[in-house]
Design brief:
about 425 residues, alpha+beta, seven-stranded mixed sheet, about 30% strand
Amino acid sequence: MRATPSKRTAVPGLRRLGVDDAPQVARLAASVAPSVLSGLPLDGDAQWAARLEGLREPDDCMFGAFAPAGRLQACAQLHWRRTLERTRHIARLTQLIAQDTASGREALGRLLAGVLAFAGDGLAVRRMEVVLDSPARWMTASLAEAGFRLEAVSPGRAAVGGLPSEQWLHAHIDRRVMPRPQAPPLPRPSDKPRAAARATLEVRIRPATELDAEDVAAIYAARGTARGTLQSPWVSADVWRERLAAQKAQAGRLLLVAEVEGNGESMLVGSAGMVTVSDDPRESHVASLGLGVHDRWQGLGVGRRLMDALLDHADHWAHYSRVELQVYVDNEPARRLYTSLGFVEEGVIRDSAMRDGGYVDSVLMARLRQSGAEETRERAASGTKRKAHRSAATETFRQRQARERQRSAARQPATDEDG
């Protein structure tokens, strides 16, 4: 599929970039702060040529804004998210490069206007995202003029100068594109008491295999499960089998399943996955996760067990210092679960997915792992608290023993010597 831009896309000095433009892109990238770029600051003509040659249209394409003399002034890569049906109305601008000068800001404005027109008219993109690192905050004014709004601030999202830095997520919503109502709210969870079932339920967590394809497909075929995730209830077992087989060969990806015992046999009732968010070396410490539990088994602690396993992997077996997720704004039980595990809400993502025929907003949440020094201090403080607790418990026990001896002595019958 090739998108055909409309007349509204025609912006003076704006065009797609090809391999022949690599030297100009490399020179522009070398003229800005390395910390605003994705990738390594030493990338030259050959690296940029390889990137431009590897773009797959229309999913990925790069645009440039040029001066009348033909000099490249600003450029950006457009990445269209069409792999998941429920988010194919979303695209993201990456590699947003421009100089912090009057001419650079003017070129950035032309670039944003042209790319938004192309994406809306040619790709039916409703939501366009831009993520800025802290040194690129000067671009915020240009984004605001183009109709972008700041939605979330994410600490520790990218490495700048060897240290974790904040990122700002901005989004533009083109409401004339793919108009839909807001999605109906999620049904309220059952009030049926489940404490007894939770106490006796035995959950086994293990890695997923291709043999689990039919069971995983059945989990997300349940409408109650699909509504709380980004999955479709109509994905076949064959598709899941391909996904499970592919995840073996992908580094930085983990997929787990949860089994319970019932009627003398094991049943698969949930799955959870974790993946490195980007190939960018400055974001290799960040993982994104997703979770789904069959609606009949929700509220029984299955999701918590899956989350515990994923976070154990992130904290103790992988180099992840930041784990993030998105959860629908009306999924209160899931938000409470993630909050109890240390996740913090960073912002609301508008029109983040399609659900039940309408758009639904999500909350971006993240959990940051402490540094080694902070973790050592916390463990020391925790050890001190445990010692104090044990001392208090021992003292309480001794006091109880003394009271029992006093009561026992008071109940002893009087003897002649006593009398």
